Amino acid sequence: MNDERYSIIYSSRTGNTRLLAEAIRESLPADLCDHFGTDEAGAVESEKLYVGFWTDKGTADEAALALLKRLKNKKIFLFGTAGFGESEAYFQKVLDRVKESIDESNSIIGTYMCQGKMPMAVRERYEKMKQQPNPAPNLDGLIRNFDRALTHPDDHDLEELKQAVRREGGQLI
Length: 173
Description:
Elements: E1 6-10, H1 16-27, E2 33-37, E3 48-56, E4 59-60, H2 62-70, E5 75-82, H3 88-99, E6 107-115, H4 120-131, H5 139-149, H6 155-169
Parallel strand pairs: 1-2, 1-3, 3-5, 5-6
Antiparallel strand pairs: 3-4
Helix pairs in contact: 1-6, 4-5
């Protein structure tokens, strides 16, 4: 069992990434946790950091990117949610963009992404767009994606994340 101290730092706009952060916390020894929550003074003291983000314009949100750009000589496990998804290729593109903000002195020890529900205002915006003359042809697909995302992160997503964390930590639980 790995006895390294860690922190879980996340940014969550709608609660999806917080659910992932809580699943990580459940997977690790509580007595080794230095910090759980948002980026605050002193939160990055741990050598191992689980850094969570929500996807904004195809990369991590501003708060998460600002944190990641400051980090040096850390072991980082990235985790995040995206309203669009169901595609590992899309998630990998997002993760690749996020990694561009991380100093090379850090090492990425693991990653995990899944779909997350979006605010109802997004669906309402799509519906209004459909009423306009010459609506974009992809609106029905966007609405279907929105509806699929409503149940995420689900129990399966959370279990997959826990397994990824256990693999990273060398724990077979």
